[in-house]
Structure formats: structure tokens, C-alpha cells
Amino acid sequence: MHVVYTPRHLLHDPSTEIEASTTHSPFEHTGRAETIKDALAADSRFVFGAPTDHGLAPITAVHDEGLVKFLSVAWAEYQKVVGERREVVPDMFYRDDLRNRTGATTEPEAITARLGWWCFETTTPLTQGTYEAARAAVDTALTATDIVLAGERAAYGLCRPPGHHATSDLYGGYCFFNNAAISAHDIVKRTGGKVTVLDVDYHHGNGTQEIFYDRDDVQYVSLHGDPRRAYPYFTGYAEETGTGRGLGSTFNVPLAKRTADDAYVSALATCAEKVAAFKPSTLIVSLGLDTFITDPIADLAVTTEGFARSGALLAQLGLPTIVLQEGGYDVSALGRNVHAWLTGFGA
């Protein structure tokens, strides 16, 4: 299997994050991608290649141009105004109710205000190299997409930063650009075929759902921790099924705490049935492995063997498949878990 990887992900290197009312070492850090790279490089079935530059057009086809522009300048502008900071995090967040009945507003001028205009939470600091790393993650996803559209059965994009929490006009949840959504839209544009994004991350991919919620050419299927207890809390409920032309094209499966291999694979089989019924030309898997039994920020109980079973189950769909890395924060196990999933799929 082709693996697309770039060391440019190392440019996004925060040393702290703000989460659970504390400041601590980030769960999403450079070691995640490096341990995956090392695990796959040790197996000759995986062939590594670098991403190619796809430019801004595929990004702005999905994301607000204002978000892209902001991310390209925010860290440097903040340094000029506030002073030297290694990580940049909003002080406040814009909500419509702040203005109540005074009417809509536009993007503010102050960099300290613009942070809270474009970001939705505190765990996703900007660093000096964040924008370049996020651009490289998009190129990683699109290069894996190119490989599959050229005729390969499957390819794996080792994307970092991850992407599925980024909405059309907001970043957060460790995500800046939505790698899977950009790839899905690009496939539809290039081929005219339908695409399914199957999201197996513990945390619901609110961004991917938002981007495609009213579309009938991209199906979004997700199984994840029940949002009644799990981040991002406000999306991912079973009754969210799409709107307008997209009604029925979104399918969410919230999972109970400590869901283990058998129940998890059974839920994934239900998701696979939904995918097959949609009849997409291409499958994109948002591969989050924070469903692992010892993941530090999740509460399911899937094992390494469960990941191998999951990959094997989805291989039975027989679809051209692009696998893009999302979460997974037990770094000591992450490499072998990705390896198990991909070899289960038939790398």
C-alpha cells in the first residue's frame, strides 16, 4: 500500500494546550505521526512517497477564503501586537447572541478578536509553522486521492494535523483544514461520482458533517462516542440525518462507554451496509484510533485485534479507498494499531 507522508507536519509543534481547565502537554503532538511512520516503514508492504503541491484551490472550494487567509497570517500578526508567544489561543469566542438584537457583524480588525471569530475552542493553538503543516496535510490527503483515482485499490495519507473537526469556516479540535472533506469534494468535482466519508474516530467529525449536511453527492457516516458525554458534545446525535437534498445522506451511530470489539465491529457492519446502499464510487475513511482501550481522552475499549477486524470488514465493500489519519492519542500503541487496521484491510 502507498503511504503519503511529509516531515512538514513537524512544523506544527505546540508545547501546551488548554483543556479540562488546565494547561498541559498537548495530546496531539509530533510524536503521533512519527510513531505511525516508523511502524509502517518497518513493513515492506508499505511504500512511502511525498505529497505533491495541489495549491489553494481545493481548500477554498471547501473552506471560507477568510479562514484560509487568517490562518496564513494569524501567528505572525499576533506576535507583532501582543508580543512573543510560542502558542496562540483565543481569549474569547464570537457567538451571535453577543450582539443579541443589534444585527449581524463582520470579521473584526483586531487579531485578538479575529482568533475568536475563526476558532471554536481552546485546545488548538496556532504555532509558527501551523499553516504550512496544515497545507501539507491537505496535500498529503490529495496525493493519496490521486493515487487511488489513478487506479490503486487503496492509499493511506498520514495526515497531521488531522482535519475532521474543521468546519467550512472554523478551526478547532486539533484541526485547521478538513483533509477528508477537501478530498471528497475534489473527487466529486473530478469524477462526477458519489463519495462516502466513513469516520471511525472516537470524536464525532462535526466539521465533515457540517460541510456536506445538505448535499446528496457525499455521504457522511460516523460511529463515535455518544455526544451526551463525548466531545464535541453539540453534534453527532442519531437524529442528525441531513437536510434538503442531503436528507438521509448523514448517518450517526453514537456508542456507549466501554464499547468493545464485538459490539464495535457490529456497529461498523451497520455503517458498511449504509455505505453499500449509497453506492459511492469511492470511500474515504477518516481513521481515528482513539477508540483504543487505553486512549487517554476517550472511553471505548477496542483492541488492536478489533482494528484488524475493522479494516478487514471494510475491505469487503470492494471500493477504491483513501484512508486518512485523524485521531489516536495512546502514542505507545498508535503505530501498531494503524498497522493492524491497514493490514487488516489488505495492505
Structural notes for this entry:
The protein has an eight-stranded parallel beta sheet with strand order 4-1-5-10-9-6-7-8, with helices on both faces. A two-stranded antiparallel sheet has the order 2-3. 37% of the residues lie in helices and 13% in strands. The protein starts with a strand and ends with a helix. It contains ten helices and ten strands. It has 347 residues and is α/β, with parallel strands linked by helices. Helix 9 links the parallel strand 9 and strand 10. The chain has a single domain, classed as Arginase, Chain A, CATH 3.40.800.20.
- What is the CATH first-level class name? Alpha Beta
Can you count the beta strands? 10
Radius of gyration: 19 Å
Assigned CATH superfamily: Histone deacetylase domain
- Largest β sheet strand count, sense and barrel closure: 8 strands, parallel
Strand order of the largest sheet: 4-1-5-10-9-6-7-8
Q: Helix and strand succession? A: EEEHEHHHHEHEHEEHEHEH
CATH architectural category: 3-Layer(aba) Sandwich
Query: How many helices?
Result: 10
Would you tell me which CATH topology applies? Arginase, Chain A
Low-confidence stretches: none
Estimated structural class? alpha/beta
Q: How many domains make up the 3D coordinates?
A: 1
Beta-strand content bin? 5-15%
* C-alpha end-to-end distance: 5 Å
Shape: globular
Helical content band: 25-40%
**Mean pLDDT value:** 97
